[in-house]
Structures
1.
Amino acid sequence: MITLYHAPQSRSSRIIWLLEELGAPYEIRITSIPRRDGSGGPDPANPHPDKKVPVIVHDGAIVSESIAIAAYLCDAFPQAGLAPKIGAPLRGPYLEWLAYYAGVMEPVMIAGFAGFSDNPAVVSTWRTPRESHARISASLDKHPFILGDAFTAVDVIIGSVGQWMRPALPPGDVVDDYLKRLAERPAAQRAAAKDNG
Ligand SMILES: N[C@@H](CCC(=O)N[C@@H](CS)C(=O)NCC(=O)O)C(=O)O
């Protein structure tokens, strides 16, 4: 059994979606986090080292960080086919997209919120939204999902960002249609129904 510590409408929502796609046995433990409106606060029972979400507990292992959780769960439930297997041609691009999201796309997004996207250190380290939009468009112009013809955990991560904040992804019909396709997935709909606990 997997326990997901979850705060509604946060980065842990995408892990509910992933767990639903995987068909994994799990329970949700609603936890409190500080919210931008001043509500909420850290939950002493939350095992996350920074009292954030998401974090999972699985067979005694505590795993935090959305991307680590996604990779861990896809490997724990390989029969769901949400990650290319080790040795498969798309394994490298799969890991690259996961790392690119955490290591580049999110920092670029946060720099944008914070109003310093054009800081020279930001641009030289991570580039700008233009470059991440170009990568996403290059992929979705060619095939229905980020890695190709098959839906993977990368789509949960990239898609959930678009559902949360549409301008974080490239504008236009190709991405609108992609997000619609993702939102229509039964697992995404089950996850949305469970988001508020
Ligand atoms: N890089 C982390 C970010 C986690 C994160 O910042 N989560 C937010 C919710 S969306 C949080 O728990 N904030 C509470 C706080 O800042 O104390 C991940 O993707 O798992």
2.
Amino acid sequence: MQQFLCPICQKELVSDGKSLSCKNRHTFDLSKSGYVNLLPPNAKHSKNPGDNKLMVDARRNFLEKGYYLPLSRTLCAQALRFCKGLKNPCIVDAGCGEGYYTSQIWESLAKVTQPEIFGIDISKFALNIAAKKNKSIRYAVGSVHHLPVASESCDLLFNLFAPYSGEEFQRVLKKDGIFIMVIPGKDHLFGLKEAIYEQAYQNKIKDYALTGFQLLDKVVVEDEILLKSQEDIKNLFMMTPYYYKTSQSNKEKLDHLESLETKISFEILIYQKEKI
Ligand SMILES: C[S@@+](CC[C@H](N)C(=O)[O-])C[C@H]1O[C@@H](n2cnc3c(N)ncnc32)[C@H](O)[C@@H]1O
Ligand SMILES: [Zn+2]
């Protein structure tokens, strides 16, 4: 069984149900909801790094309504594709947020195998929600740049709308391990942008090449969604970067909307760790 690693001495951490400790007696308490804080002090650049409670609650409330189900179903299918035949696939969700996708991936894999899933995010607000939802997934506050998991231990690594850390992802993946990244497609949320801005622009799609990874496959998920309440529109807006860079007068345009139709578009990029 894979374990989290101690952020101080990198030895394995063993749980007694209340805390995790390594053989050098570094001890980390489990929170009431069940996550552990393994963020090295030098990786913490503010009091509460990562997404704040407002952003986390908005995303949780929006995702729970099922608007992004086409994406989560496709991610589950991809997890099954790559974990087929593995008895205890080890999976890391780097930047897992409130564990919306993490828990659905666990549920679909648990029907056919015994997955060991680690969710890591720098926001304790996000993990507080994630850890309450699924007690079989192990959650730690940590950074994508210093994942508290062993080198070459991971069969599959997800990085969904979260910061990327190429060398660290390479380190934790097994030889031939699979890395799945999701990025917004060019028309993602175009309807929302049209409602806010005079001139809405498509997203720019980045170059897919990643050092140390070979692109195996690209899966596009697209749909048209209808948001039927002011609350859903506000939650969607607050979970996007637009909320933080839009003028007050443009923000107010959404106040008068009772419904909003928008395209959603995601690119699922599937890579394999390159042989060195
Ligand atoms: C847009 S959210 C995506 C969350 C989740 N993957 C999802 O798709 O629902 C980005 C997440 O990255 C986290 N994050 C930001 N910087 C991070 C870092 N250096 N290490 C780990 N997580 C980070 C934030 O706290 C936030 O939960
Ligand atoms: Zn230690």
